[in-house]
């Protein structure tokens, strides 16, 4: 009986060891989009992201840089529906939080606090300001004032 347990546990021990020794860093976020040009314009104009070379060289995909080797990939070639809710979002921080909120207002882009109150800034218990808004495909984006 002990031999069977060891044979079952031993392979998993190796997997756990490999995971503990692994080192990861964030590389990119990929979003499935309906209209590639509209989505690309949004991320360029609203977030000011720079378009970079699509190294995959697949049509229907465009890449953007968040800086520091972090990327956003917009993919329009898959047509499966995506279920979206506010809990599934990506968050960006900026040292120019108030200026960014003003930019959204100038572009007539609605934002809200976490509960969903329109045009209201959420202030977390730790004093960090945050807002939530959606891109043209309905993906939720958080922008906050966390210092880098």
TrEMBL record:
What's the name of the protein?
VOC domain-containing protein
For this protein, the record's InterPro entries field holds: Glyas_Bleomycin-R_OHBP_Dase, Glyas_Fos-R_dOase_dom, VOC_core
Q: Which Gene3D superfamilies match?
A: 2,3-Dihydroxybiphenyl 1,2-Dioxygenase, domain 1
Start and end residues of each VOC domain: 25-146
Q: Note the superkingdom of the native organism.
A: Bacteria
Q: Tell me one Pfam family matched here.
A: Glyoxalase
């Amino acid at each position: 009986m002990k031999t069977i347990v060891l044979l079952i546990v031993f392979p998993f021990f190796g997997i756990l060891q490999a995971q503990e020794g692994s080192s990861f860093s964030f590389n990119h976020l990929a979003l499935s989009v309906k209209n590639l040009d509209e989505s690309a314009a949004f991320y360029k104009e609203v977030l000011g992201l720079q378009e970079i070379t699509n190294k995959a060289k697949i049509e229907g995909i465009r890449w953007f840089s968040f800086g520091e080797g972090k990327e956003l990939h917009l993919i329009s070639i898959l047509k499966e529906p995506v279920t979206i809710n506010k809990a599934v979002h990506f968050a960006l921080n900026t040292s120019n939080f108030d200026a960014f909120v003003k930019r959204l207002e100038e572009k007539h882009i609605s934002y809200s606090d976490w509960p969903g109150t329109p045009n209201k800034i959420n202030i977390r218990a730790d004093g960090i300001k945050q807002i939530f808004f959606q891109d043209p495909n309905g993906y939720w984006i958080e922008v906050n004032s966390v210092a880098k």
